[in-house]
Write a structure and sequence with these properties.
Helices cover about 35% and strands about 20% of the residues. By secondary structure, it is of the alpha/beta class. It has three domains: about 90 residues, 3-Layer(aba) Sandwich (Rossmann fold); about 200 residues, Mur-like, catalytic domain (UDP-N-acetylmuramoyl-L-alanine:D-glutamate ligase, 3-Layer(aba) Sandwich); about 130 residues, Mur ligase, C-terminal domain (Protein-Tyrosine Phosphatase, Chain A). The protein has a nine-stranded mixed beta sheet with strand order 7-8-6-9-10-11-12-13-14, with helices on one face. Strands 15-16-20-17-18-19 form a six-stranded mixed beta sheet, sandwiched between helices. It has a five-stranded parallel beta sheet with strand order 3-2-1-4-5. Strand 13 and strand 14 form a beta hairpin. Helix 6 packs across helix 12 and helix 11 packs antiparallel against helix 12. It is globular.
């Protein structure tokens, strides 16, 4: 019997363990921290340990599935590789057990929105579709009970780092800007290569849908797949482009135009174009794609309208954890804006936001531990910058600084771990504080 060791008992690890057990593996789960789903493992007769790793047990594995949160550089992973024991991602393992047509989506920003949007279109078209990956339920866990005809996967660079044979029928590459570089030795080129793994196993019958406007993508594509670009600025005989406030899709000499979108902002035009091209490749009827793009509800914590208080609109963009994501958020603002920003700085270059801040932002409320860089970047360009010690205080300050007709935007440009457990926790605290007004 093959022995599978699963390192990390989060969503992806538990899912891989359950799928492996179903497929007659001897399964052992090991987590350095506390396992929250012990009962699930025990009920399925899966052995487990927490609070550390038993090295001999792990090195006796036939294969190892590693959580995307575990770095390849740690000693245990190096020991496994030196002994020739394959180390896979949960995505690679789950791929063996599906016959579905796979649409895989990656990019620094916009992955979640585009994944949910394409899933929404396919469900509305009546397709048997699963939406999974780096969002909600993991890939492996989702196919334990049954397979699907179509699977739309959001994939992070960490998940792509652990693939070997995984291949998408359609891959979507939205954008690549510096992020998570600590995992790549602060080498942006290595991060770019990681994102491009989404297309490395594709063949000529497969499709790569990509953002032509991103030179990190356009200038570095190497793929056997059919390439379908999308752009805000260039027109194509085959692909998607934006002209005269409408999206134009040309695929296989079939043309479709889309005039209205539920999601506003330049970044969401890109997301909508990518999803629309994929739906066209999958032969979804035009009217269904148009209607789906019109009635889609945006993902929580991404430019999410919370509530209007005395004519002031509060917007939760807690998912914006880097400069590029905030750039798109500020670019989409059409009101005078009080901007709540800060947290754990990931090496931000705030000068990239200067022009937008000058034209859109009337005041800044700083949160978190790295406020000095924010003051240094913007003190000469906005009327008021204040520091808040809590989210409740930040919302209170922003409410005082805003007037009727203004907007308050939480778009932190930073990780959340100094004050919150994750970006969702940060967004929920923001919404709770806003509603208490």
């Amino acid at each position: 019997m093959k022995k599978l060791v699963v390192l990390g008992a989060g969503e992806s690890g538990i899912g891989a363990a359950l799928l492996a057990k179903k497929n007659k593996y001897d399964v052992f789960v090991s987590d350095n921290g506390i396992i929250t789903e012990k009962l699930v493992l025990s009920n399925n007769k899966i052995r487990w340990e927490e609070g550390g790793h038993t090295k001999n047990e792990i090195l006796s594995a036939t294969e190892v599935v590693k959580s995307p949160g575990i770095s390849d550089s740690i000693g245990l992973i190096q020991d496994l590789k030196s002994q020739g024991i394959p180390v896979l991602s949960e995505v690679e393992f789950a791929y063996r057990y599906t016959k579905a047509k796979i649409i895989a989506i990656t990019g620094t920003n916009g992955k979640t929105t585009t994944t949910l949007l394409l899933g929404h279109i396919l469900k509305k078209a009546g397709y048997d579709v699963l939406v999974a990956g780096n969002i909600g339920t993991g890939f492996a866990r989702s196919i334990v009970d049954r397979d699907y005809d179509f699977i739309v996967l959001e994939l992070s660079s960490f998940q792509l780092d652990g693939i070997k044979k995984f291949k998408a029928d359609i891959s979507i590459l939205l954008n690549i800007v510096p992020d998570h570089l600590y995992r790549y030795g602060n080498d942006f080129e290595k991060y770019i290569q990681s994102k491009f793994r989404i297309t490395e196993n594709q063949k000529s019958e497969d499709v790569l849908i990509y953002n032509y406007d991103d030179e990190n993508i356009r200038n570095k594509i190497e793929t056997q797949a059919k390439k379908l670009p999308f752009s805000l600025y260039k027109t194509f005989d085959e692909g998607a482009f934006y002209k005269d406030t409408q999206i134009n899709i040309n695929i296989n000499k079939n043309k479709m135009t889309i005039q209205e979108l539920a999601l506003q902002g330049k970044h969401n035009v890109y997301n909508s174009m990518a999803a629309a091209v994929a739906s066209r490749v999958l032969e979804v009827k035009d009217f269904i794609t148009r209607q789906s793009l019109l009635d889609f509800q945006n993902v929580e914590h991404r430019l999410e309208h919370v509530i209007n208080v005395h004519g002031i609109e509060f917007i939760n963009d807690s998912k914006a954890t880097n400069i590029n994501s905030v750039w798109y958020a500020l670019e989409s603002m059409h009101k005078n804006t009080v901007w709540i920003v800060g947290g754990v700085d990931k090496g931000n270059n705030y000068s990239e936001l200067l022009n937008l801040v000058k034209t859109k932002v009337k005041a800044i409320v700083c949160i978190g531990e790295n406020t000095k860089k924010i003051h240094d970047a913007f003190a000469d360009h906005v009327d008021k910058i204040v520091d808040a010690k809590s989210m409740n205080e930040a919302v209170g300050f922003s409410y005082q600084l805003a007037q009727k007709g203004d907007a308050v935007l939480l778009s932190p440009a930073c990780a959340s771990f100094d004050m919150f457990s994750n970006f969702e926790h940060r967004g929920l605290e923001f919404k709770k504080s806003v509603r208490s007004l």
